[in-house]
């Protein structure tokens, strides 16, 4: 035992290296525990799912408010791929009539999401509600482009691991309370 102690005293670099090894091992252990805790934290998983729903909601609402008469087929296909349930059924059943109206009007509408929020999330049921503020610019031949800001309420349903819009409507504006 005496020879080991004497060797350690005689070689300060060895002592410093061993001390650093012990400290590094402690940091590695603490990092591993922190990583495990974060990976199994329900609030982090909930936040991730909320962010996924918000991202899908914003994109879907933007998709449903953007349409170019020159790329009508692709635009309407995007509408259908962004939706599910009753909303999807309505879009599919009214597609031919809507195509005819847009071709005749020759309009181009583009939407830009200004902000969005998840107002409700039920992970187990696979449902979420979002409030999306957006600006829609509409251009018609021979007319100046017009901008309209609106707030949309959307309901999302998780299908095969992906969120899709299942309902969409205008959010009320102003004071809606009864006197």
Task: Walk me through this protein's architecture.
- It is a single chain.
- Strand 3 and strand 4 form a beta hairpin.
- By secondary structure, the protein is α+β, with helices and mostly antiparallel strands.
- The protein starts with a helix and ends in a 9-residue tail after the last strand.
- Helices cover 50% and strands 30% of the residues.
- The protein has a five-stranded antiparallel β-sheet.
- The model has no long low-confidence stretch (mean pLDDT 90).
- 16% of the residues are buried.
Provide tags for this entry.
alpha+beta, single chain, 6 helices
Summarize the structure in short.
The protein is of the alpha+beta class.
Question: Helices and strands in order, then pairings?
Answer:
Elements (H helix, E strand, L loop, with lengths): L1 H9 L1 H28 L2 H23 L2 E2 L3 H10 L3 H9 L1 H11 L2 E15 L4 E13 L6 E14 L2 E9 L9
According to DSSP, the number of beta strands is 5
Spatial order of the strands in the main sheet?
1-2-3-4-5
Chain-averaged pLDDT: 90
Parts with pLDDT < 50 across at least 5 consecutive residues: none
Percent of residues in helices comes to 40-55%
Termini, distance in Å? Answer: 90 Å
